[in-house]
Amino acid sequence: MHEVGIALDLIEQVEKKLKEVKEPIQALKISVQLGKLAGVSAEALQFGFDIAKKNSRIPFAQIVIKEIPARVRCLACQKSYSVEKVEGICKNCGKGPVKIVSGRELSLEGLEYE
User: Fold this and answer.
1) What percentage of the chain exceeds 90 in pLDDT?
2) CATH architecture of 2-113
3) DSSP assignment of 44-62
4) pTM value?
5) Is 23 exposed, middle or buried (CB count within 10 Å of its CB: 0-12, 13-18, 19+)?
């Protein structure tokens, strides 16, 4: 389950940001963007985060996962559309190739703390 490793990386990023603040603080909410094509399950990431945070500096933080839909743009007709699975042929014009414009994201988007 590589989602635990990803959760540990997110926690490490948050802990680095918290060290930059002089006063003792507690992370409350971590916002993450997760693309549908990132190869990461939102449920598994949530589970991995809940496990990994217990032995960290942020044991009470909650993770909020914003799922980003997969979108492609056809290089032939220039139309953009959402997809569940990327295929090389445009569903609008039947040509290709298509370029992925969103859905690969996996990033720390925000941090709330007190």
Assistant:
1) 73
2) 2-Layer Sandwich (3.30)
3) HHHHHHHHHGGGSS-TT-E
4) 0.83
5) exposed
Burial 31-65 (b: 16+ CB within 10 A, else e): ebbbbbbbebebeebbebbeebbeebebeebebeb
The rounded mean pLDDT for the chain is: 91
Work out the pLDDT band at 86, boundaries 50, 70, 90: very high
Q: Spell out the domain ranges in the chain.
A: 2-113
DSSP 11-34: HHHHHHHHHTSSS---EEEEEEEE
CA atoms within 13 A on the CB side of 81: 16
